[in-house]
Amino acid sequence: MEAEELLKQYAAGERNFKGITLVGIDLTEADLSNANFTRANLRNVILKDANLSGVNFREVSLGDAYLSGTNLSEANLIGTTLVKTDFTNANLSGANLRGSNSREANLSQADLRGANLTEANLSQANLTEANLSESTMIRVNLIRAILSGSNLEFANLTNALMNESILEEVNLTNGILSGAMLSGSNLSEADLSKSTTIGATLSEANLSGAKLRTTNASWTTLRGANLSGANLFRAKLSWSNLTGAILVKAVLIDAKLNKTNLRDADMRGAIMPDGTTFP
Asked: For residue range 159-174, what is the model confidence (pLDDT) as tens digits?
């Protein structure tokens, strides 16, 4: 089907386009809100600045498509193939991307507030400065993804895979990272205040200059992590493993260190829980 025929049918009231093939067609600024494209083939399609709010893209093939600035709020993208798709500045607030494959997709500056990304594959995706506040990202795959400057406030990242991801200056305040895997990730200058990382693994992670004020990091693995200059005021680190961690000039005032493993940790200049400075 060609773009002209699709738009003609939509204007006439048709909303069911289940299983159709629209490979490579240009639908820039088209209004296809609330249409049903379940299992359709939309590879390489151009939907720049289109209105796709409430659309059903379940199990659709949208790989290499261009959806910059597109409105996909409340859209159904469950199980959708979105490999290398461009969603720059797109509105995906409240959208459901559960189990979708968004590997290497570009979601920079996209609005994903309240979106469901449970078990989605976002490995190597670009989420720079994206808004993911209050999103559900349980068991999401963010391995080697770029999330610099993104907003993940109140996001649920329980059991997420985030090894070697880039999270510089990210906002994770009040976030849930229990059981998440973040080995080798870069969280320098990130804000994890009031977050929960119980059972998470951050071995060799870079947390230099990070804020972990009142963070619950009990039972967390931080072996070899760089926490130099980090603010851990009133953080809970009970039973956590900080073997070989770098805590140079870190602030640990009122932090809970019950049964914390600090073997071979570099504590030079750190301010201890009682307010004294480590030699």
From this structure: 999 999 999 999 999 9
